[in-house]
Amino acid sequence: MKLIFLFLSYFISYTVAQQAICEFGIRNVGGVIGYSCGLSVNNPEGQTITEIGGIHLEGYTDADVQGILRINGSIETAFPAIFCQRFPNIQRALVHGLNITEITDNSFSTCTSLDWLYILSNRISSISQNAFANNQNLIHIDLDNNLLSTLPENVFGTLSNLEILDLRNNPFVEIPSGAFNGLSSLQILYMQNTRLTAINPAWFSSTSNLETLYLTNNQISQISPNTFNNLQNLISLNLNGNNIGAFQAETFSGLRNLQSLSVGGNNISEINKNSFVGLENLLTLDLSGNFFSIIRNGTFRALTNLRSLLLSNSRINDFEIDAFDGLTNLTILNLNFNLLEDLPASVFAPLRNLEYCGLWSNRIKTFRRNVFGTDLSTLLTLDLDENVVNALERSVFYDATNLNRFLFSSNFCGNGIFNGFAQNRAEFMQRLERCFRNFELIIDTVTDNNVDYLFFRGENPGIVARVQAEDEIQIALTPFNFPWSPMIEVIIGAANNTRSIIRRNQDEDVAVVPSPGIIRRNQQNLFRIVWANHVILVFRENEQWPFLVHTMIDFFNVNFYGLRTLQSRATWSIQPV
């Protein structure tokens, strides 16, 4: 049997009031050539359309018309029953953009062969309970971008063959428990941007074959643990862009076949380690755009088959040591656009199959080999773009034998995108030599109520000091590895952590600024001290402007720097600028 479409397209055609004019022809519609009709409607008063004009091509009749695609004009009322009465063998109706206001019991009652109904971008605010009672062959209904605030109970009750239902972009106030009754074949349900505040588990009592569920950009704030228990065949669940603050334990435990879970752009600050129990088949997890701060031990331990973990733009600044425990099959880790400064040793060690490690746009200063496990041969792409890296450990690039792309733009010690790294290793390693040398100059040490300074060679015109202390810290700049005159001392957090000082020759304060609370106790503090062109500059964190400045009157070469704390213990990690 011929598959023929009634093609309702925008075209210039003669129209009369309250009449639809049909221009028949054979057209290629979506790759299918068929007998088609373009309708132009003129109905400014929203009256009932009682006529369809037009002349068939020779050899064709109304019975040959099997599709409606896009009407020109405006109906301004319920979808007219005359279309299905005139063309009873319609299989596809694409009637978007007509300002249709409702679907009644009669709108499609005689279109018993209808399998696709695209009625999007209208003004439909009402659908009668029996609107689809005679349309048991429907496979796809698209009601996107209308004005629906509710649905009748059992409105789809006869549609046991329906596979796709699109309800997105409607201002729903309430969807009754039985709205989706009868949809035993439903595979895809779109409910994005529908103002939902909660998910009713009863919606899914008849949809056990659902495979894809979109609930994006709603106002859902919580999900009860039994919500998805009847969706054991669900493969993809998208909850991006809601107001979810937390998951209860075993929220997704009934989704044993789920492969993709997206919960980005919510308000999640911490994940219960049992939230993902039952998701052994999950392949992709998107948690981007949340507010985690720290990833706790064992968070993802249940996700033994996970391949892709997306945690970008989530304000993460720390990991517990076993944060990624159990993710032995992970190949993609996206931590871009976070607040990471330090990566704990062995934090990526469980990721034995990691291919992409994304750390773009964080605050990483030093990148060490020990963040990974023993085998780096699977790593193909390492992204450190737009950090503040000033030191790289050379062995990372020796051990990543198959590294293809190293993204390193806008860092302190280097800048560039290195494609084909494995093939151009010698050249690229040479270009990164400054970063490697800086790493070799890193000093990790402790000062403990020391009267004397611990001195180290200062080959570069500055240092980055990461220090954890309880009280003021002091850095000396001298030409020799012992106190001398001339000498400059930088004292940060003096006078009970209220001010900072630059002192000349151990007795003259040449710069003093208020700096209350500048030493944050029980956490790492970052300072940059730069000496160049007769000027001493002291910066806090990654700030652009120094908070402490001094121009030296008697210039001397700074060849050494000293570290000490007079009244407390401090741990230091120093690297050259």
TrEMBL record:
Signal sequence annotation: 1-17
Domain Farnesoic acid O-methyl transferase: 463-574
One Gene Ontology cellular component: extracellular matrix
SUPFAM superfamilies linked: L domain-like (SSF52058)
Keyword Transport found: no
Keyword Repeat among UniProt keywords: yes
Keywords attached to this entry: Leucine-rich repeat, Repeat, Signal
InterPro entries: Dev_Immune_Receptor, Leu-rich_rpt, Leu-rich_rpt_typical-subtyp, LRR_dom_sf, Methyltransf_FA
PANTHER family: FISH-LIPS, ISOFORM E, SLIT RELATED LEUCINE-RICH REPEAT NEURONAL PROTEIN
Name of the protein in question: Farnesoic acid O-methyl transferase domain-containing protein
Source organism (scientific name): Polypedilum vanderplanki (Sleeping chironomid midge)
